[in-house]
Amino acid sequence: MPVARALIRRAPTPRAENPQLSNIMSTSLTRVLVAAVGTAMSLGALQSSAGALDSADRSGADRGADATAAAKPAAGSKSESKERKRLTITKDGTVVDGARVHGSISVKADNVTIKDTTVKFGGYHSIRIFPGAEGTKILRTTIKCRANRTNGIVFGNYLARKVRVNDCRNDFMSSKRNPAVVLKSWVDGKPFEIKAPTTTTTVLTPPPPPSTGRPNASNTGVPAGTKLRPSGGMTITEDGTVIDALHVQGSITIEADNVTIRNSLIQTDTDGYPIHVDGGATGALIENVEIDNMGGTGIGILFSTDSSGTVRRANIHSAEDGVRIQGDDVSLEYSYVHDLQRQPGGHHDTVQIRSGDNITLLGNTLLPYVESTGDPMNAALQIGSLLGDDQISNLRVVGNYMNGGNYTINGGSDGIVDSAVYSGNRFGRDYRYGVVGNMDGASTWDNTNVWDDSSSPAR
Asked: In sequence order, what DSSP letters do the residues of 395-442 get, joined into one string?
């Protein structure tokens, strides 16, 4: 009875010094209220109904955060940025994006992502990963504990990247049974990490030349004889999606984990990204694809911050830039990046790295030099314009052929690179100034990096 509720809450009984007058006025007011909602309801029922509505309001407010806790199921829409009392996440693939939570977050589903969120809590566990919940990622999030008993993230089995935990009893909790991985994070303002369990390290060596020669138009891209089906552009939000044998006239955005794009042609003149691996999307595999930017001003493939994946046997051309990397654990293998398109004021690179650790360039043909125009462009590998203040670590550039650029490799001086190895690469001579520029002592360069025409050391 919303009318009755409104009247009862907004029409207080008039005050009177005389108790008898007060009783008369109260009785009169009651009759008015009963008339307003219908004479069929008694005064006692009216008051009881209003009380029940008030109680429902209060309990609904308490339950509201739980009821709306599944901020984004795997279907794809992002959660609204708003304040919440508590989140209990029960739908697989939920994304909590930009929330302000004055309470706890309980994760009881798989492949949950919490990003760009602030959690303030004074109970026991600010963010709790419950047993059986797999694939939780917590990105660029701040946790502020409000009591001495309050923990940060418990009890393991999660990935945290760029997370700040402040004033907590225990910050990032982890165990052998349920290990956590914590990268580039902070506890009370001090850098903090928990690395993944160590495994046997595979040492990269220069790959033998393919039987069909180094990567070129004949042995990269869509395999000969593949029948392609027409498709428009798409945004992929389901983990594990496989795109196979499509002719995509438009762009592809990957917003899910472990997505595969193979044996496909992507054509678009976009000024954005023909393929964009969005921030937080991990495990992408892009293989045997051709990316034709059709002379546009786009970047063939972008790996955004906190994304990861592998590109293998790709043929990327007719773009302003080939591949841009801003995430960790990205590999570009046996691919052919060539024929960049000169644009006014452009800064054209076949590969540019702006941030990220554990990046590998293996066995590629990287040609900023455009033979038809004699334009060297800027670089085969450009390291610079660092995003944030975290250095690039464990960069491996092995067994590639590179030709062109102002400098073929712009190595990222002034502390941009923490560690890098260059080995087994071969170089053409169609550069403007030299084969290497701006490379400091953090990068290891050996004598297996040679000129292609003489096999003598190239530096």
From this structure: EEEES-EE--SSEEEE--TTTTBS-EEEES-EE-S--SSEEEES--TT
Same domain, 127 and 260: no
Domain count, the chain: 3
Contact 450, 423 (CB under 8 A): no
DSSP 151: E
CA distance 324 to 307: 12
- The CB density around residue 225, as the number of other CB atoms within 10 Å, is 5
- Domain termination residue (choose one: 42, 65, 88): 65
pLDDT in tens, the chain (459 residues): 333 333 333 334 334 344 443 443 344 433 433 333 343 333 343 333 333 333 333 333 333 333 333 344 444 434 445 677 889 999 999 999 999 999 999 999 999 999 999 999 999 999 999 988 999 999 999 999 999 989 999 988 999 999 999 999 999 998 877 899 999 999 999 999 998 765 444 455 555 556 678 999 999 999 999 999 999 999 999 999 999 999 999 999 999 999 999 999 999 999 999 999 999 899 999 999 999 999 999 999 999 999 999 999 999 999 999 999 999 999 999 999 999 999 888 889 999 999 999 999 999 999 999 999 999 999 999 998 777 778 898 999 999 999 999 999 999 877 789 889 999 999 999 999 999 999 988 899 999 999 999 999 998
| pTM score, whole prediction | 0.64
Q: Give me the domain span that covers residue 164.
A: 68-194
